[in-house]
Write a structure and sequence with these properties.
2 helices; elongated; mainly beta; 14 strands; about 10% helix; about 60% strand; about 290 residues; 5-stranded antiparallel beta sheet; 8-stranded antiparallel barrel
């Protein structure tokens, strides 16, 4: 019974991984096996976590403790539009993945953090009062690049689930941070956010082949592991000012295989020099014979 169950499971898995050879025209009858991708969507920085506590105690000369501040931070990331372009290639004999791609995209990052709590007034040893502190960080433009591998699992003819995973890199242009409100000297110094990020990322989506060599995919993408810089929270988030944020992308992608040029009978055969069927002497004899 267990062997039968295992056999059925293996059959289901093999059927799930199987797909028609012509879904991406692997035989390259009408296309060249590679093409362009155009992507449009949105990008979101999700605070993870959205709130965090903060307290700074110092020791006086007599051994007593003073509280410079004690309260809670609330963090909020922003969303922006995303535009991207990529090039992708079809794998002729797929095993784990059936396509791979290189992508370039542009977004804009911005985050806000607000502290609310008690802050010392005029220095240690004096009473604290309720106060706020605001942190704001943003980039003028964020450039994203990614190298990814893809796997399609066909559901019904022309419709498929799509999974992808790869390495992503960001660079922030014009990154600026501003702190305002309570006396910032009563808080731990703010570290400068990293202007770049390297992460293992991936996602899933739903795809459809609209016509031969033309595909439409709805995708969701996020970071699995931040390789550099790493966040205190770990996982796919990275630290920016007081908060940690996980990136999410929601997009629609148009994937276009490049069509194979139509065959032409004009001109010399490929790789061979053109040759006259008759040499000049033979043509003279032919003209003479027709004249007589």
């Amino acid at each position: 019974m267990r062997l039968q169950t295992l056999g059925v499971a293996l059959l289901i898995v093999s059927e799930a991984l199987a797909q028609r050879a012509d879904l991406f025209d692997r035989k390259e009858q009408a296309h060249l096996g590679h093409g362009w991708s155009w992507k449009l969507g949105g990008h979101l920085l999700d605070a993870a976590p959205s709130t965090s506590s903060s307290q700074w105690l110092i020791a006086n000369a007599d051994g007593t403790l003073d509280t410079l501040h004690a309260g809670n931070w609330s963090h909020q990331g922003s969303g922006s539009a995303m535009v991207g372009i990529g090039h992708w290639w079809v794998v002729q004999n797929p095993v784990l993945w059936d396509r791979w791609s290189i992508e370039l995209a542009g977004v804009r990052h911005a985050v806000d953090s607000e502290f609310r709590g008690r802050v010392a007034q005029d220095g240690p040893g004096l009473p604290t009062t309720l106060d706020t502190l605001m942190d704001h960080g943003e980039s003028t433009f964020t450039l994203q690049t990614a190298i990814q591998v893809h796997r399609a699992i066909e559901i019904i003819p022309d419709f498929f689930l799509d999974a992808h995973m790869g390495l992503g890199y960001n660079y922030e242009f014009g990154l600026e941070t501003v702190r305002s409100g309570a006396d910032s000297a009563l808080f731990l110094p703010l570290s400068t956010p990293s202007a770049w990020r390297l992460a293992l990322e991936g996602g899933v989506g739903l795809g459809v082949r609209s016509q031969s060599g033309r595909f439409l995919r709805l995708l969701i993408n996020t970071d699995f592991i931040q390789l550099q810089p790493t966040a205190i929270q770990g996982g796919g988030a990275w630290d920016w000012m007081e908060g940690s944020y996980r990136p999410w992308q929601f997009s629609i992608s148009w994937d276009l295989l490049k069509r194979r040029p139509a065959a032409s009978c004009v001109g010399a055969p490929s790789g061979q020099p053109g040759r006259d069927l008759f040499d000049p002497k033979m043509r003279k004899k032919m003209r003479w014979s027709r004249g007589t």
